[in-house]
Amino acid sequence: MEPSKDASEAAKHLPKGLHRNDPIAFHNHLAATWEANYRSKAFLSRVNAFESALGECELQGMCWLDAGCGSGTLTRWLAKRGAEVVGVDGAPAMIRAARAAMVGRECEGRLRFEVANVGSLPFSDATFDAVLCSSVLEYAQDPASYLNEIARVIKPGGILLISIPNAESLVRMGLRITYQLTKMVGVPRPRYMKYSRHQYSRSEFSELLRKCGYEPEYATAFGGGLPLWLDRRSWLGRLLLLRAVRL
To answer: Which SS3 state, helix, strand or coil, does residue 41 take?
Structure first.
């Protein structure tokens, strides 16, 4: 797959009102190489954090939605544990990469991928037992509307496993400063900071979850690629992971 051709093709299918500077178009350009990110320490820490958050939760027979699934790494992780999983993403190129990556895998029969915007999900009310939403809300114009839409498709008592940027993280602060400085000289890095609109402290995001019909049960910092005892510190881990119950 040629990234430039794929991104051009995907741009034709962007939702109305989006353009090449929007997060969906940006992630279309990343699709061809996105899967390789999960070989890095920072991305592997996501899988470890989600495993810790689920604990002894039995996934066998559960119906999950991976809202903003990217190339499907975490979607496949859920399916390997016995869940039936639907992965959706607004970036068509990501969905094509996810479908290609699942072919021939043992869990293939428990997976399905669809192009869909997390803010407007094509599912009936109370469809899923649980929803995973990894690093999506930071790109949304209105995070509360996304949380309300996700709540709509979760059964009462169902689980939401969600990650967002950690406003209290020194690593996150350093990334924001780096972006502003490199932007001034015309080479902004890291590039995703251009699209990352939102960050929260643990208390702020817990309050937002409650307003949208969830009760937080568990929270941890993670995602810095640091040793575990440092990565889970709220002032270092650049992401927050929360597990909440749909009320």
So the answer is: helix
Amino acid identity for residue 247 in this structure: L
Chain centroid to CA 114: 15
For residues 163 and 202, the answer to whether their CB atoms sit within 8 Å is: no
Q: CB–CB of 237/166 below 8 Å?
A: yes
Residues 74 and 109 sit within 8 Å (Cβ to Cβ):
no
pTM: 0.88
Question: Residues 6 or more apart from 112 whose CB is under 8 A from it?
Answer: 85, 86, 87
Q: Which residues contact 142 (CB under 8 A, 6 or more apart)?
A: 119
Q: What is the pLDDT of residues 179-233, one digit of tens each?
A: 999 999 999 999 999 999 999 999 999 999 999 999 999 999 998 777 877 888 9
**CB under 8 Å to 125, separation ≥6 — which residues?**
152, 153
- State the Cα–Cα distance between residues 121 and 225, nearest whole angstrom: 32
**Domain tally for the chain?**
1
Check residue 109 and report its DSSP letter: G
Domain of 39: which CATH number?
A: 3.40.50.150
